[in-house]
Amino acid sequence: MCFDQLWRVEAGPKGRVCPQCRNAERQARRHNLTRARVNAILRVQDDTCPLCGSLGGDPSTEGPSWWHIDHDHRCCSGPRSCGQCVRGLLCKGCNTRGLAWYESLTADLQTWDHVNAYLTDPPARRAEAAVLFHGDLSGVRLRDGAFAEWRSNRPLSEPFPP
Fold first, then answer.
1. For residue 154, how far is the Cα from the chain centroid?
2. Conformation bin of residue 145: beta by default, left when phi > 0, alpha when psi is -120 to 50
3. 70-126: per-residue pLDDT in tens?
4. Residue 118 three-state SS
């Protein structure tokens, strides 16, 4: 449950889930990810877009935007992803315009080191992007950085205090 959304909690078939968590889980399922895995990827990305560094949100049809899950379309071209081809979580502009445009360029024009580094070593494929900490298990990290303050870096191997 989102700690900053306690007043908006709605009962759902799987228990009490706030609308933002429900939207985040729906998006994650389309890419065969769990909310905890998405939180772990965002932890590795420092809760920012790995391409432009933005933190702020943007409106979407499902309410406040969460993140856009970037995956390699050469692997999965349909509306769903296998999850193995997920590269990271991007802001709307970088996902829909920036990276899509950059990947459409010929190889000799793809000269931006920062973007090439992202494509070569995407945050989601790094070992540290696994669900490792208690902070990965709870809440949903929105694009406003709301959860960066309370995120627990206590390893899952250590019990969480009551």
1. 20
2. left
3. 988 788 777 778 878 899 998 888 988 889 899 999 999 999 999 999 999 999 999
4. helix
d(CA 83, CA 38): 11
* Alpha-carbon span 94 to 67, nearest angstrom: 11
Phi, psi of 11 (to 5 degrees): -75, 135
CB-based burial of residue 35 (10 Å sphere; 0-12 exposed, 13-18 middle, 19+ buried)? Answer: buried
Which H helix or E strand runs over 20?
A: helix 19-29
Contact in structure between 25 and 35 (CB atoms under 8 Å): yes
Q: Over the stretch 7-28, which tens digit does the pLDDT of each residue have?
A: 334 444 556 666 666 777 788 8
Residue 83: count other Cβ atoms within 10 Å of its Cβ: 19
Token code pair at residue 113: 């080191």
Q: What is the pTM of this model?
A: 0.75
Model confidence at 146: pLDDT above 60: no
User: Pick from 93, 89, 96, 148: which is nearest to 123 by CA?
Assistant: 89
